């Protein structure tokens, strides 16, 4: 492949790339070859690193599944009691408040709401790391604020000794 910012590219370089990627074949042949690869579990290779796309998906799958199931559990734990409460108090102020809050929550775009939650939970109240996923790193990051709060303030001790 070409390195980024390498300057000029010759026609021979482009022909070699087209040959390597199979872009010199007709579109329907490329498509059929791609679909045949999909049926055999070959998703192709990444343009950026040249690694297999199936490996990249496999590497990201545990974090994706953990995020999906965690969000599903949180949504069930929040929505079920609120739905039951709204059904019990049908037509009353509690029902209207729950209905308004759910409509307001659904009205916000998901990406904006997620960004605001990251801002709230990692910047304003440093409870979670702002990005990344690694179980040991997350637990170490969460333990750090507790360590800072629980340790004795050694600067006063040093100032008193001086």
From TrEMBL:
Domain of life: Eukaryota
InterPro entries, per database record: BPD_transp_1_N (IPR045621), MetI-like (IPR000515), MetI-like_sf (IPR035906)
Keyword Transmembrane helix applies: yes
Localisation: Cell membrane
Membrane-spanning intervals of the chain: 65-88, 100-125
Keywords: Cell membrane, Membrane, Transmembrane, Transmembrane helix, Transport
UniProt-listed GO biological process terms: transmembrane transport
Keyword flag Cell membrane: yes
Entry membrane topology: Multi-pass membrane protein
Domain (ABC transmembrane type-1) ranges: 61-162
GO CC field: plasma membrane
Name of the protein this chain belongs to: ABC transmembrane type-1 domain-containing protein
């Amino acid at each position: 492949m070409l390195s980024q910012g390498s300057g000029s590219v010759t026609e021979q370089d482009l022909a070699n790339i087209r040959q390597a990627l199979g872009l010199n074949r007709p579109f329907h042949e490329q498509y059929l070859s791609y679909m045949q690869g999909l049926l055999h579990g070959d998703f192709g290779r990444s343009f950026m690193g040249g690694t297999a796309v199936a490996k990249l998906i496999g590497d990201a799958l545990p974090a994706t599944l953990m995020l999906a199931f965690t969000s599903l559990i949180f949504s069930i734990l929040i929505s079920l009691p609120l739905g039951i409460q709204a059904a019990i108090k049908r037509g009353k102020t509690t029902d209207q408040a729950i209905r308004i809050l759910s409509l307001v929550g659904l009205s916000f775009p998901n990406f904006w709401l997620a960004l605001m939650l990251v801002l709230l939970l990692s910047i304003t109240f440093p409870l979670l790391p702002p990005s990344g996923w690694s179980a040991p790193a997350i637990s170490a990051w969460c333990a750090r604020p507790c360590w800072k709060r629980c340790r004795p303030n050694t600067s006063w001790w040093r100032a008193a000794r001086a």
